[in-house]
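Weekly modeling sync, notes
Attendees: S.R. (lead), two postdocs, one rotation student

Agenda item 3: backlog of single-chain predictions. S.R. asked that every request posted to the team notebook include the full sequence so nobody has to chase files. The rotation student volunteered to paste the first one in as an example of the format we agreed on. Action items at the bottom.

Example entry:
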Amino acid sequence: MRTSQTDTAFLGALSVTPMTGYAVRESIRDVLGHFWNESFGQIYPALARLEKAKLIRREGGKRTASSVFAITPAGTERLRQLLSEPVQVVPPRNGLMLRLFFGRQIGPDACRALLAQARADAEQRLAGYQAIRREIDTDDELAPDRPYWLLTISAGEHNTRAALAWVDESLAAVDNLAAGPDTQ
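Predicted structure, as returned to the notebook:
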């Protein structure tokens, strides 16, 4: 049910504050992006569909790129319904794991390079989470949502620290492979 997940993200974003379609896109990318993404091609069709269903309204009435969308009472009720549904687990697609699984084909040096890049990416994500945490902690307007948002930031931080530990372990394993069969 990709549509209901998309609706949850859009209605949720608009439940925080009314915004333009562009701002919804930026919010999903920048704020929700550490745990959720939407295709940018989905933004305006989804907003049009939600508007047609009277779950959001366009403020100002003009159909322009600068139109501001706001959630309606029916949209708030629909958001609550969607949030109360069981979580839909989607099988992961992880290009790094795919490459490492078939690592014999590319060899230890290429696997080491992939892992080094994974480490750099994880360190960057961790720094990003810490920056978001600081921003959330210092903006008093976010106080009502802060404890809930910090739950997702904490999950990202924990997952990233676990990824860093896994990278270190994996680099040691690849180094053992490169050293030859007698060292394993």
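Discussion: group reviewed the output briefly. The longest helix spans residues 146-179.
Action items: rotation student to repeat for the remaining queue; S.R. to check formatting next week.
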